[in-house]
Amino acid sequence: MEYKIVNNSGLDIPGFEDMIKSLVSFSQDRFGFEKPPTLFLNSDPANAENMLGKTAYYDPEQKEIHIFTTDRHPKDIMRSISHELVHHNQNHKGDFEGDHFSGEGYAQKDPHMRKMEQEAYLQGNMCFRDWEDGYKQKQQVYNEWRTNTMSLKEWKNKELFGLLSNKWGFGKNTITESKDDDPNRPDDVLKKQLEDEGIDTAGMSAKEIDEKAAELRLGNPKKYTALGEDLEEGAKPDFPDVDGDGDTKEPISKAQKDKEEKEGGDGEKEDKDLSKVPPQLRKHVAKKQ
């Protein structure tokens, strides 16, 4: 695909030339003309002083686009190029064939030429707008890529982790998100315990946190409960049924007192009573007696 730009305007256009080529390539893909036209950028100060001077024209015989650039904004220049590229495509389709008026006022005097001009305004402006939006988006993505210090491998891994997290429910739950500030939530307590042990919980799922907390409980059951809360000093688990009433929640001291009242306060069965108490609790029960 050959592009030829003849710069007779005196403009310094290295970067501008790349944008023009991008627009021509975009238009060729959209309209389907086989070969790009030769593009001339012309300087004409006298024409620029005329409020209704020429902006551009297309030569169908030479297949050339001529653009007047003096005192014009680059974006306006490119909009004219897009307009003339539609005429080049019309020429490629054979729309210029036949006896048609091409003099001054042709858009008002010749119905066929008027229709071609309507197409050039509509299709040219929309083509330029679509190219502009796409070009800006590509530049934004490119600039973000340049400023991003993350390697390609790291970026792919991060994207993959995010997709898998959402798929398997490890992402944030918007329904319960408002509860994240509650310091007494069990999962927050577990996270704190893991972090106190030097374990980084960042990126860990709730299931992984539970499993890691379970390992801590197995290693030190006296320090961690099933809910991940520290046991307070002096707190005890469910108590043995000392008085035989089936209540394992009442303190041993109360159960022992109830037992003594049932037995009439007789201390003769103290040794027998203590034998029913688990070995690790006998000392405590003896003190209460």
What does this structure look like?
The chain is α/β, with parallel strands linked by helices. It has 3 domains: 4-147, Collagenase (Catalytic Domain), CATH 3.40.390; 182-219, no CATH class; 236-289, no CATH class. It has 11 helices and 4 strands. The protein has helices at 14-31, 45-49, 74-93, 106-109, 111-147, 152-167, 186-196, 206-219, 252-262, 270-275, 279-288; strands at residues 4-8, 38-42, 56-59, 64-68. It has a 4-stranded mixed sheet with strand order 1-2-4-3, covered by helices on one side. α1 (14-31) links the parallel β1 (4-8) and β2. α1 (14-31) packs across α5, α3 (74-93) packs across α5 and α7 (186-196) packs across α8. The longest helix has 37 residues, at 111-147. The radius of gyration is 43 Å and the shape is rod-shaped.
Short summary of the structure?
By secondary structure, the chain is of the alpha/beta class. The chain has 11 helices and 4 strands; from the N terminus they run βαβαββααααααααα. The protein has a 4-stranded mixed beta sheet, covered by helices on one side.
Q: Residue-averaged pLDDT, rounded?
A: 75
Tally of domains: 3
Percent in helix: 40-55%
Task: Note the total helix count.
Answer: 11
The CATH architecture category of the largest domain equals: 3-Layer(aba) Sandwich
- CA-to-CA gap between the ends? 102 Å
Secondary structure: number of strands: 4
Radius of gyration: 43 Å
Beta-strand portion reads 5-15%
